[in-house]
Specification:
This protein has 11 helices and 7 strands. The protein is α+β, with helices and mostly antiparallel strands and 314 residues long.
Length: 314
């Protein structure tokens, strides 16, 4: 029984820490979920009412306290009706297990292929809509399209989004490092503050990010502008460099590990110099050569995709 008593004493010691840590985790995830579902104003409004009630109670403002107490039951019903879409999204995300679902994210080279296709389609004024799921399952969206399960390549993406193609008007789903499906139908946003010149693709991208935590890449067919939608917000007319940086930040969890490993290998392979003034130029030269090789690879893939697209057009 002595070992059991020791276990109880250890548990009594770590129990407050576990309690506080779990509560902090739930509060953080809850705030993150509220922010993504645009329900944060609801919480702020409720907090303001609680603050007003506290002031009325502290200063013994009987009339104001009576009004708030009388209105409280009806106020909760009104909140449930007015914020029904936001409450529904919160419950759906909790049911889909967003907190603990593993990520299915493409790698750096695969993202570069998507960006190359987006640049070429932007130059040709051809629309494009690509969805990158993160934690929330979107099987219901995938089932609305045609399953492909193909490797990611700029040539295939360009071929799918050709004019008058059977899959051109739908969305492409990229999940788990593969093109899962194409021609998928996305929910349209119901927001009223969307710009009037935005077409169906931009509204669908916003609607998709309102119902899930996906990241959506959009190429406008009218202007050729490349945009990103995530967390129920649309970032319009971004440069390819901005799109690449943001996509890698949002999607590629392994990019930092791969980059750091690559830098460590380069540092280990490079000769050690005693003087610090020689180290700086060498590092600059290494960065320049790496940047040039990356740029050359992108240009080569872009040229090859352009040639294949011209062959398809012929």
């Amino acid at each position: 029984m002595a070992w059991f008593q020791r276990l109880l004493s250890i548990y009594d010691f770590i129990r407050p820490v576990m309690d506080v840590a779990l509560l902090a985790f739930l509060l953080y995830k809850g705030y993150e979920l509220l922010e993504k579902t645009q329900a944060l104003p609801l919480v702020k409004g409720m907090g303001f009412l609680v603050l007003v009630y506290g002031i009325a109670f502290f200063f013994n403002l009987t009339t104001l306290r009576w009004v708030l107490t009388t209105m409280a039951p009806g106020l909760f019903i009104v909140i449930a009706i007015v914020f029904q879409p936001e409450l529904r999204k919160i419950i759906v995300r909790l049911g889909q297990g967003e907190f603990f679902r593993p990520d299915n994210k493409p790698r750096i080279g695969q993202l570069d292929a998507v960006i190359t296709a987006a640049e070429l389609l932007s130059e040709q004024r051809r629309g494009m809509l690509v969805v990158f799921p993160r934690k929330i399952n979107i099987k219901n969206i995938i089932d609305t399209g045609t399953r492909i399960n193909a490797e990611i390549s700029s040539s295939l993406i360009i071929a799918v989004f050709q004019f008058d193609g059977p899959l051109h008007d739908g969305a492409m789903i990229i999940q788990g490092g593969k093109i899962t499906a194409a021609g998928c139908f996305l929910p349209l946003s119901e927001r009223q503050d969307i710009r009037k010149n935005f077409g169906t693709r931009h509204r669908a991208s916003l609607g998709m990010t309102e119902h899930s935590d996906s990241v959506v890449l959009v190429v406008s067919e009218e202007t050729g502008a490349i945009s990103l939608a995530y967390d129920a917000k649309l970032y319009y007319d971004l440069s390819p460099l901005e799109v690449t940086r943001k996509l890698k930040e949002l999607l590629d969890s392994e990019s930092r590990k791969e980059v750091s490993q690559h830098a460590a290998v380069q540092q280990a392979a490079s000769p050690q110099l005693s003087s610090s003034q020689f180290n700086a130029p060498q590092h600059t030269a290494t960065q320049t050569s790496t940047t040039q090789s990356t740029t050359e690879q992108k240009e080569n893939s872009k040229v090859s995709a352009q040639k294949e697209m011209e062959g398809i057009d012929e």
